[in-house]
C-alpha cells in the first residue's frame, strides 16, 4: 500500500489566520479576471443587441385599455426607458374614439430642450418643464420617425423603439397613426 504524501500543516495561529484569507482573495481575483475576460470577449464582436438586452418593441397591452387610461388620466408617461442608447422618457397620447387609431408619441421634454425633462400634472394632459412652465402634451418634442406607437390586430398597442436599438426591421408592421 502506497502512502499519500502528507499535506503541509499550518502550525502557527498567524499562518492559520492569514492563509485562508489570502486564498479567498486569490479566488475572487481569479473570478474577477475570468468575468472581465468573458465580458471583453463578448463586447469585442460586432453582434447586434438581442431582444432580451434591448427589445425593439415594448408591449403596452390592450389598445382599448390604454385609450381608456388616457381618456381618464391623461397621456401615459414612460419615464427613463432604458434603451441601448441611454435613457429616454416618452409620452403616449391618444385622440379620437377608435382605440386602433389616433395614437401619438412625444419625447418628455420641450422642443429643442432635451436637457429639460417634464413632469406630468397628475390626471391631466398638462406637463411642467424644468423651468416651471406648463405645457400641453402637444407642445412636447415630437420623436424621430423611427419611434412610434403601433397597434397590431386592432387590439394590442406597442411602442416601436427600433431607433433606440438596431436598424429598421423589414418585417415590421406599419403604424396605424400619423404619429
Indicate the topology.
Elements: H1 13-44, E1 57-62, H2 63-73, E2 76-83, E3 86-94, E4 103-107, E5 119-120, E6 126-128, E7 134-136, E8 148-152, E9 156-160
Antiparallel strand pairs: 1-9, 2-3, 3-4, 5-6, 6-7, 8-9
Structure description:
This protein has 179 residues and is of the alpha+beta class. It folds into two domains: 12-47; 57-164, no CATH class. Helix content is 24%, strand content 26%. It contains two helices and nine strands. The chain has helices at residues 13-44, 63-73, and strands spanning 57-62, 76-83, 86-94, 103-107, 119-120, 126-128, 134-136, 148-152, 156-160. It has a three-stranded antiparallel beta sheet. It has a three-stranded antiparallel beta sheet with strand order 2-3-4. It starts with 12 loop residues before the first helix and ends in a 19-residue tail after the last strand. 21% of the residues are buried. Residues 165-179 have low confidence and may be disordered.
